Amino acid sequence: MRISILTIFPDFVRVVKEYGVVSQAVENGILEIEIFNLRDFAKDKHKTVDDYPYGGGPGMVMKPAPFFEFFKFYNETYGKPYVVLTSPQGDVLNNSIARELASKDHLLIICGRYEGIDERVMKFVDREISIGDYVLTGGELPAMVIVDVVSRFVPGVVDEESVKNDSFYNDLLDHPHYTRPRVIEDMRVPEVLISGNHEEVELWRRKESLKKTMLKRPDLFMKHQFDEIDKRALLSLFRELMADAK
Ligand SMILES: C[S@@+](CC[C@H](N)C(=O)[O-])C[C@H]1O[C@@H](n2cnc3c(N)ncnc32)[C@H](O)[C@@H]1O
């Protein structure tokens, strides 16, 4: 998959491809991440990318001309990508949007700055994506978040089983995790995890996952489609709660 980022701060976003599984995926040729500097497409000698807003008011607006120049170059060179504009006004990013974006061969993410971009640039945009109901100073952090979360759904970037067990995959939160040592300051790893009984381990993990979701995110719990393991896990949770109540 090819992901391109258009920004006025290329050094800011470059780190997204330099660490962890994303950098490994780039090295292995599973992901291609390219960063473009919008200033390179500004025609004047000062490489201006912003201007005063028509109608007055505070702040500056990103000029349309460098974007038009950029898309002329980009579409001719690489073909038309699926274009995402980072914007607090967009659809709020979640797992299902990330999965959908990961199915595109070619994604281009635009980072806004100032008061935002000239509205006429919207003719190039397929989807506006927000990373939450707050306003950041620029689209670079949202672009990096989008690259990171989308990458996890690109086959081969992370172990598919691990993605399936992560929070939100099936409207459930992840179960608790433990590693060595078995005991630290009198706190023990639950016995079932060292029993070697895989079926029991899976049931315990599902029970804990359901419990966490019920307590922390009842909205997700209500959406979850319960399968046979869930039913057994809920029965086990119910027994546990009854035993605690005695
Ligand atoms: C200061 S913001 C502009 C906010 C704009 N005036 C508004 O109120 O809708 C500058 C840029 O940061 C990015 N941005 C800010 N908050 C964001 C969010 N929650 N999600 C995604 N992008 C965001 C967008 O690219 C935006 O164009």
TrEMBL record:
Keywords, alphabetical: Cytoplasm, Methyltransferase, S-adenosyl-L-methionine, Transferase, tRNA processing
Identify which top EC class this enzyme belongs to: transferase
Q: Which domain of life is it from?
A: Bacteria
Q: Taking every annotated instance into account, which residue ranges of this chain make up the domain tRNA methyltransferase TRMD/TRM10-type?
A: 1-222
Q: What is its EC number?
A: 2.1.1.228
Q: Does the keyword Methyltransferase apply?
A: yes
The entry's localization annotation reads: Cytoplasm
Can you name one GO molecular function term for this protein? tRNA (guanine(37)-N1)-methyltransferase activity
Q: Which GO terms describe its cellular component?
A: cytosol
Query: Entry's InterPro entries?
Result: Alpha/beta_knot_MTases (IPR029028), tRNA_m1G_MeTrfase_C_sf (IPR023148), tRNA_m1G_MeTrfase_TrmD (IPR002649), tRNA_m1G_MTases_N (IPR029026), tRNA_MeTrfase_TRMD/TRM10 (IPR016009)
**What's this chain's function?**
Specifically methylates guanosine-37 in various tRNAs.
Q: Provide the assembly information.
A: Homodimer.
Protein name as annotated: tRNA (guanine-N(1)-)-methyltransferase
Organism from which the protein derives: Fervidobacterium thailandense
